[in-house]
């Protein structure tokens, strides 16, 4: 266990340094990157902080994103939706019910609506029926009852621009990974001046803050970003507007695409990969479709990753979670065993995790070309030779 204690000291130090560099809650975003920052690591699969460090703090809030940055995220991930007045916000669900205190706001009691969202009649308080000012009066809470509840009611919803400012203000280069969320629904409910669409506003926001360039280009490495969506038409449309790399998200096997109504089998066929690879650099599948699960045990892995790689497409599966209830029995309740399997046996190129710190530690402690791990190895050799004496 000695490596644990040695590794932990610099980690604590990093946390302290990071905390002292904190800034006011909603600074205006800066334009352009800082040439002197520590670059994005590109030697190992990407650690994608799913909705920030939402295993620890309420999802998609500024503290959740700042925590993920302190914990070593390569990319901070977010879902983009819109307010009634067309401001892009970071929020996962189309309704506010599950992750905000909307129920306690009597002034909004008459805003409950029922809309059809991706073919399903959905009832609740929809973000598209609230102005940004109204949304800002709400506070976010934890989605899951078994996670830390002490931060409920403390943090506001943030805008896409505020999210970008968090990434640009990070002490090293941290990428962003925003999703064009529910584009069919958003374009139905929200109208922008000049006939602009949700996708136009989304890409304009990225461009306003200097995000541009193809995957691994000089511009991209300065301000890395992946655009993700479950809707292929949004990705094709966006590829007309920006050459930033795009990731095609793939839902469970029984869920058709929200815009083109295509089946899982169709969009994961070689023929479809041949088509979509002109627009995207990779796919983001639900992990249980890559390695099917029965009675909480993994079954034989599918050939999805092999076929995607054969088409030169990266694979970034979602979502990795530390809690026992999410760990399949093969992993003996050990999230590191799960990371080991996906990184070293399945061979994925990035992982969406609710616990960025765990993935970061696993990668740090096991990556051979990491200078810290070399040092630890040296220390281990010194200790073992000392024992021999
Ligand atoms: C891309 O842009 C061109 C030129 O403006 C336009 O003709 C074409 O329809 C666009 N394609 C898509 C998929 O939006
Ligand atoms: C989507 O496709 C399924 C299967 O082909 C079909 O039954 C359904 O009617 C389609 N839905 C829409 C909205 O077109
Ligand atoms: C998971 O465990 C089951 C039951 O022991 C076994 O059949 C299966 O091969 C294991 N899967 C993997 C990928 O190791």
Automatic annotation (TrEMBL):
Q: Which UniProt keywords apply?
A: Glycerol metabolism, Glycoprotein, Hydrolase, Signal
- Keyword set includes GTP-binding: no
Q: Where is the signal peptide?
A: 1-22
Q: Where is this region: Disordered?
A: 28-58
Q: What class of enzyme is it?
A: hydrolase
Query: Which residue numbers delimit the GP-PDE domain?
Result: 45-363
Q: Name one Pfam family in it.
A: GDPD
Protein name, per record: glycerophosphodiester phosphodiesterase
Q: Which organism is it from?
A: Rhamnella rubrinervis
């Amino acid at each position: 266990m000695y490596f644990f204690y040695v590794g932990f000291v610099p980690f604590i130090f990093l946390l302290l340094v990071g905390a002292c560099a904190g800034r006011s809650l909603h600074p205006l975003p800066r334009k352009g990157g800082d040439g002197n920052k520590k670059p994005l690591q590109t030697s190992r699969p990407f650690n994608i902080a799913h909705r920030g460090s939402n295993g620890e703090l309420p999802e998609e809030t500024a503290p959740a994103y700042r925590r993920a940055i302190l914990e070593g995220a390569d990319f901070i991930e977010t879902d983009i939706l819109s307010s009634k007045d067309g401001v892009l916000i970071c929020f996962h669900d189309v309704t506010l019910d599950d992750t905000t205190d909307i129920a306690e706001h009597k002034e909004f009691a008459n805003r409950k609506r029922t809309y059809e969202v991706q073919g399903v009649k959905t009832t609740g308080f929809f973000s598209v029926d609230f102005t940004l000012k109204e949304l800002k009066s709400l506070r976010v809470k934890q989605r899951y009852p078994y996670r830390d509840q002490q931060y409920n009611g403390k943090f506001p919803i943030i805008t896409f621009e505020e999210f970008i400012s968090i990434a640009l203000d990070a002490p090293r280069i941290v990428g962003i990974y925003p999703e064009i969320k529910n584009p069919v629904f958003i374009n139905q409910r929200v109208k922008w001046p000049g006939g602009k669409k949700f996708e136009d506003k989304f890409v304009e926001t990225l461009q306003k803050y200097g995000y541009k360039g193809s995957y691994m280009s000089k511009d991209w490495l300065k301000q890395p970003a992946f655009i993700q969506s479950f809707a292929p038409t949004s990705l094709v449309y966006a590829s007309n507007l920006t050459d930033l790399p795009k990731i095609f998200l793939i839902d469970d096997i029984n869920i058709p695409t929200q815009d083109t109504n295509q089946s899982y089998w169709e969009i994961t066929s070689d023929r479809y990969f041949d088509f979509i690879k002109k627009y995207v650099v990779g796919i983001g599948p639900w992990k249980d479709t890559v390695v099917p699960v029965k009675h909480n045990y993994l079954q034989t892995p599918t050939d999805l990753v092999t076929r995607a790689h054969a088409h030169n497409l990266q694979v970034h599966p979602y979502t990795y979670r530390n809690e026992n209830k999410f760990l399949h029995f093969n992993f003996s309740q050990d999230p590191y065993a799960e990371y080991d399997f996906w990184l070293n046996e399945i061979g994925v190129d990035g992982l969406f995790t609710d616990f960025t710190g765990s993935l970061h530690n696993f990668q740090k402690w096991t990556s051979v070309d990491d200078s810290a791990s070399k040092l630890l190895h040296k220390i281990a050799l010194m200790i073992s030779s000392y024992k021999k004496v």
